[in-house]
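Sorry to interrupt, but I need a hand with the structure work. Can you supply me with one protein entry, sequence and fold together? No commentary is needed, just the two lines. Leave the record below and I will have a look.
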Amino acid sequence: MDHPMPISITGINSLDTNPMFLMGLVYKQFRCNVSTQMSAMNITLEMYGALRVLHEQGEMTQQQLADYLLRNRSVTKRLVDNGIKFGLIIANKSATNKKVKLLTLTPDGEQMVNQCTPIINNITQQFQDKLSKSESKKLVTLLSKLISSDHFVD
């Protein structure tokens, strides 16, 4: 079975055939679309991710949140601090260990997740509409294989 030639995007074969370069372009386009459509809400894609984890998992420590997001602790701290500043996250001291702060969503945080989720889902669907269902599943499988769960990023 012949495989079709890759589509020329940049006109530079070494870039057009480099999956990491292409993933970066897709992510930047996705991020730009999210930023544009969620600009009125004053929330970033990274903040949405943090809120989504708290929405799905409930109360947790900042370190647990960093682990879920595969983000460095300092980046997660900044996300949490901004979430607290905007009234989306609350940090309460643990009843069993006063040094530990437990994070939860405020009602405004829950509302933000509920407002942003359809936007994120819609943009995701627009990107995935270019793929068949099996291609979309395969893409998730392949990308999941490339992610290192012990490599935290900024």
Notes: Helices lie at 13-16, 19-37, 45-57, 62-69, 73-85, 107-128, 133-146.
